[in-house]
Each structure stands twice: as C-alpha cells, then as structure tokens.
Amino acid sequence: MKTTITVNGEPRTLDLDPRTTLLDTLREHLKLTGSKKGCDHGQCGACTVLVNGVRINSCLSLAVMHDGDQVTTIEGIGTVEKLHPLQQAFLTEDAFQCGYCTPGQICSALGMLKEVAENWPSQETANLTGKITLTDDELRERMSGNICRCSAYPQIVAAIKSVAGELA
Amino acid sequence: MSSVIDWESTSNPVKENRAGNIGKAVDRYEGPLKVTGTAPYAYEVEPPSPPAYGVMVSAPIARGRITAVDTAAAEAAPGVMLVWTYMNAPAQGPRPERYDFFTPSPRPALESDRVYYFGQQVAVVVADTLENAQAAATLVKLSYQDDAAKAVTFHDHFDEGVQPPGESDVEIGDFEKAFAAAPVTVDDVWRTPLQNHCQMEPCATTAWWDGDQLTVHTSVQMVRFAQNSLAETLMLPHKSVRLLTRYVGGGFGGKGSFYEDLVLASLAARELGRPVKVAFTRQQMMHGTVHRPATDVRVRLGATPDGRLTAMSLMTTTHCDRRGNFTEHASNFARSLYAAPNRLTGHRLVRLDLPVASAMRAPGEASGTLSLEVAMDELAEKLGIDPVELRILNEPESDPETGKPFSIRQLVRCMREGAQLFGWDRRLPTPGQVRDGRWLVGMGMAAAIRGNFLLPAKASFTVDADGVITVKQGMTDIGTGTYTVLAQIAAETLGVPLGDVRVEIGDSELPPAPGSGGQFGAATAGSAALDAGMNLRKAIAEIAVNDPASPLSGGDAAQVTFQDGVIAIANRSERLSELIRRNRPDGLTADGEVRPAADASKWSSHTYGAHYVEVGVDTITGEVRTRRMLGVFAAGRILNWKTARSQLTGGMIWGVASALTEGNAVDPRYGSLINQDLASYLVPVQADIGELDAIMLDEVDDKANPMGIKGVGELGISGAGAAVANAIYNACGVRVRDYPITPDKLLAALTAI
Ligand code: FES
Ligand code: FES
To answer: Looking at the predicted complex, does its ipTM rise above 0.95?
Structure first.
C-alpha cells in the first residue's frame, strides 16, 4: 500500500505491507533505528515518537494510518554534533544507563512539555481547568508511560526539569 | 603472580590521579550516540545485504514431547524461506548435561523432540519480511504429549529440597543449643517470588557469513563465553566466529548467557546465504531466557537482652530447572555481615519443570537481605534498641566466620552518616504514630553488603601519531559505564586529555575480558587496562630516551612523566604525538592483563552500604509510596562519581520494586509464568519512585586490585527492599513476610488491626 509520511521534515513515500507498524516502518524500512522496540505492545514507551507534535507509541500504530502525517523521531531532534538541549541535559544528568529507553524518554518528554504548556490535565492535576505547573509529581506521573529498567528515574526528572523552563 | 602486597605498596597513575580524571563526574563516553538514537544495538546493525527475518515459536507445555509436526501451511505462506523444527534443524554440537556461566559449551537450538520448560523455543520461521515471518509462525502446527503431571509451584515441593551439589551447610559453634538458650529470639520465614530481568532490549541477533566466516552482532554480557560457545554449537573452530556486542540494552545477569536467537540467526544465515535477524518478543523473554528463582528463607536470631547476637541462622530453600544447577545463595551474605558466635547457614534446592533459573542483579544478596535485614528490625524492636545501634553492637572486628581481616569495612560509617543525613533521629520507634491525612508515615533502614570479585582479563592500548590512545578490550558496557571508566583510566595513565582517548569494546577479536556481571566489571576490566597503560608508558619512555631526535634522549626512562599529551624528564619535553610520529608512525601498542592475586583469599573483601527510607501507607487502599530514600555506600575508590551514583540509585530502585511490586507467579496448570508482559509484570515506573539519592564515602580498598576500586552495580539493591519493608512496619505496624508487599496483603492486615 502506497503511503506518504513526512519523517523528520522529509516526505517519504513507501509501498508497505498494510500490517507494518509505524515502528517497524521507521526501523526496518527507513533505517531510523533510534526508535526502540521494547515490547511491541504499547507497554514500555521505548518506541515513542511525535506524530503531528503529539507523542504516541509507534508500535501500536500501523504506518498506513499515517498517510500525510508529520512524524518526528529521535533522529529529527538533534545530532551528535548539535544536541538538542534536552539531549544535552540527559547526558549531563546521566539520565540513562543502557540507553535503550532513552530515545523514547526524550521524545516523550518533548511531547509531555507541550501537553503541560497547553494545560492538559493529568491524574496528578488538582484543578482540571487551570494552568498546569510542572511539579515533580506532575512530571513523574506524565512520564510513567516510559519504563526505564536501568531505573534512571531520578536523573530523568532532573534532566527534564533542567530544561523545562527554557523549552516551555 | 600478582599479590595483594604488591597492589598495596605500588603506586600508579590511577592512585596518584594527578590530572584528576579519576572519580570525576565525567559524562558517558557513548552518551551522545545513545541520546541521539545512533548507537546501533544488535538488531539495528546494518548487514552487508538486506536481511531475512526470523521469528521463533515457543512450546506451550512445561515438560513432554513433540509428537507431531506440521509445517506445510507455514512453508507455503508468502515470503517464507525456511521453517525449522527439531525434525529438520541442522546438526549442532551436543549439549552437556549441566553447564555454567563461565565454561563455554554447545547450546544447540531445536535439538530434540523433548520439551523441558514452558516457552522453550521449538520452531523458527524465516521470511523476507518481519510481517510475513510473524504471520507464518502462527501457522506452525505442533502436537505435544504433556508429561508435567506434577504441580510446578515451588511451595508444593518445598520438602523435596536437597543440598545443592558440592555444598554443605556451614556451622560455627553450636547454633541449635545457643538459639534454644537465647533469652530474646526471632524465628520467621520470608518468601521472595520468582522475578524476571525485563531488560528493555529483548535478546536479538543479526548474523551473516562471508564464506565460512561468521559475523554476529548480539546482545550479551560475556563476549568470549558467547563466542566460544556459539562456535562449539556450530561445530566450528573458535576463530571462525566473530561476535560483537557494542551496545547492550540492559543485562542484569539475564544476558550472562545467550539464547536461541544467536544460534538460529547464525544457522539460518548460513542456510540461506543471506543475513538473518532474530529477536525475542517481550513475551518470549519471560520464559525463554532466565529468571531469579523464588526463595523461602528461614531466619533465626538469638540475642542477649543487651543486644548481642549469640545465634544466627539463615536457611534458604530455592528452585531451579530440571537440567540446571543454579542455586540462589540467599544465605551466603549473612556469613560476613554480623558477629554471632554460633551460626548456621545453608541452602536446599528443588528441581522443577520450570524455565531456567539463573543470576539476576546481586544473586543471593537481593533475596537474602529481604529476610535478615527485616529480622534485625524485628529483633531491635523486641530488645527496645534502635535498629542502627543494634547493628553497630554486632559489628564484627574480623570476618565472623573465617576470622580473616576485612580488606576495609566502613559499614558503621555508612549507617551513621546515613542516619544523620536522613534525619533518622526523627523516627518514632513505635509504629503507627505519624499521620498525614489518610497516610500513615514511617521510616526504615537496612544494611547493604555485596561481595567483591576480580577475574582474569586482558587489554591493549595503542598510541597513534596524533597522540590518540585507543583502548581495546573484549569487554561489554551494559549500561554500567565501562566505556567511560576505561577512557578515564587511559587518560589518567597516559597523561592525555579525555578527548584524546578512544574505547573499543564488545568484540571477540579484542583482548578477552570476562564481561559484565557480579559487579566485577570495572575492577577486572579496569585493572587489565591499567596494566596495558603502564606497559605502554614504559614502551614510550624507552623509545624517547633512545631517540637522538627527542629532547628526552639519554635520560632515565623511569623518570619520564606524562601530562597533557606531553612527555617530559624535568624541563626536557616534547609532545607525545611528535615522538610517535617520528618513531612509530603506524602506532605503538602494548598489552596488559590482570589476574586474581594468589594471596587475595587472606582477606574478607566486600562493598557496604546503608539504606534509609520514608514511606507512606494509604490506610484506605493499602498503597505504599516511597517518599524519600537515601543510600550511603562504601565501595572502594570511585572511578566516576556520576555513573557510579546512577548504578547505585538504579539498584536501590530495584530494591524498592522487590519490596513493593515485582514478582511472577507460576500457573500450576501449564508451568507458565502468569505475568507475561510489561503490563502485568510490574517493574517500577517514574511515578513509583519519589526523591531518591545515593552518596559514596571516600574509600580506597588497596587490597582489592591495583586501583583500589570495587564494584557498585549490585550493591544498591542489597538491603534496599528490607529498608522499605521496615519503613512500612514503622508506618502502620504490619509485617508482611511474603514479598512483594502489595496492597491486598497490607489491607488484609490493616483491617485486622
Ligand atoms: S515498543 Fe512500543 S510501547 Fe513498548
Ligand atoms: S537506560 Fe536502560 S532502560 Fe533506561
């Protein structure tokens, strides 16, 4: 099935088996292996990418559903030569160990910060219609879809907090 | 032969730390690749030509035989290139009757009609795309004869426990008599469940052949072990196999061995003449790899009214698979922890029709401290003594079982500094006194201990004409920081900026090191690296003093200093790169190695720590939240403050999870594990963990190895869960001895109060 997806700003037209997930499309067809497969069932967040600016688990989505969509993967966020401030913060705070959950954490955090800026409430939010302040509890709740088995959780909180102001 | 005395008395650049690279909070060497998603893990390595995709099929019975095989539909499915079961899989080396972690041996896949455990791989389908392979795998029809008549739940077979092979109980004094005579006693049984490693990266392999030369990229902790074993499985000379594992998405002991993905990808790539990739699914990881077995630990403590232990016993019953030999040594750590003149420790092993039991982060300590360190809390309460003081009262002068001196032991300092920093004096000894709305709040503490090990390893250092140092070692970095600490050791040893060091690891063509496990990695790999660095220094110095063109010419080689990329004797100096460019334009290499010291066994050598935690217990739901937690650790010289702290906090979080959420139950109908994915197997998530930190005491253990360092990868988990259990008791007055302490168990007890 012919599908055109704009990935990291570049339109990519692919002829795909309709069973192909967005994650496998990125990894196996576009060689964008930064998005990781930790469970393939929407349970770990390692495959998190931004679709039209919103974070999703790319393993739970078929590529053909994204015809015309804008997808941003970790490769579109920064490069080794020019790290995004959040990538630099992950490095500085040591917010990863094995690194396998890391691209998903970073994409998820960027999506999360946008949700906060747009005042989307969470389980932790007391006033559902008010302005959201990114407390530690809000941050932890909102990042709980991204498992880090190495358990870099305190360092991930520190990394996100260190740039949340400047990215908001 | 190396000796502890030499290590202690000889200085070296790491000890001197003139440039200050050692101990520094250096960012991870490979970090920029990881945060940009450009570090290729095993399944992501690009092979020389487009790969085919393998998908494995797993057995749905715990023990029995495959009675019929029908692969016709799978073979006829679109894109399918090959379907293998035991009927047509290629011949492989024979599996030894029993095997262990360090001795390479064949691990044939699809070897016979026998099924030994639920989830054993019984077929593989290889197709042109992943989607075609996944679809065809569902068409493989296998019939089984199910022989697993017996229930496979550990506790039903508890009484069948036998002494693990080659072991015996260790008794000092007369435990039973002393325990019977003790005025104050604790006698309880703690249960820990089976646990899964759940590394975020499922096991995976990409394999291809060039003639009869095999290249595999896989995800394992032990390079040489896996490479030799794979070659023996394929009945090839070792040198025909090159195994790479440059980035490993978590190991925790579960990738100490290797699995069918490695063997089947290799065999299928040979058969098809094209690269093949095979990965485990998350569900296959739960059964098809290894797990930490369940334990029952009976702890008996006897003490005098003033708090001196007179009798101490830990007896563990645990299980492994039918063909295995793994014992979760949950009693062992207690042999070195507290003084008590009469002591008894030992293990009983039950063999069951379950998947393979093996090592998981801090095997022994992780499970065992969940009992003894809670029993000490119970004893402290009975005695009316503060738990910290009770531990200090029973602090041994020398190893309480062997009488050997400690290489260094700062457990008391860890406990005292932790108590002060945490505000332990604010804890009320009587449970249930502190309320915060519907929450009851309490504090708990526990001690941490984990052994220290050193294994033989090699390394090489090369300096090139740009003055860049390249470290080469068949070592792994499973998130532990190996790349980074090797770079720090190299920079410090050769006196070059960190930016002028390259690290190449995770390749069987490089000088062998045992790999990552047992928290021996940094000490073992690092000591070999230091030796290679020292040998390279000597070689460079010799060249310099013998080179008429060098300002150092004619000097004493022993006087050459290395700093900022410059070599010097007093005020005569030149850049290292210039010397090498003139004399060794193609580079200069030196090898190094480390071996355990012959006299190392004269000392009792461990890492230590103390955990302090505050929890809230929701009186209505039974939910437990860790509010804040602090660990204070003493683990020798710390190579990298940043990565070491991360290892420790990671371990502590594992401990919290083992107290509160983690565990898998056996379904006795199928011999399967009930939690088969990350939705049901509860590893901690961000919201489960509150404020949490680890600090490290200044320490040098000069008897541990030439650098005086020890490991931290497993220390953090030791005792952490016990501290949480003790805090729960302090909060609400309930002791749950059957881990994890889930809301249902707490609520039942809370309602009863
Ligand atoms: S791989 Fe998509 S959520 Fe785990
Ligand atoms: S860094 Fe290893 S899982 Fe997060």
So the answer is: yes
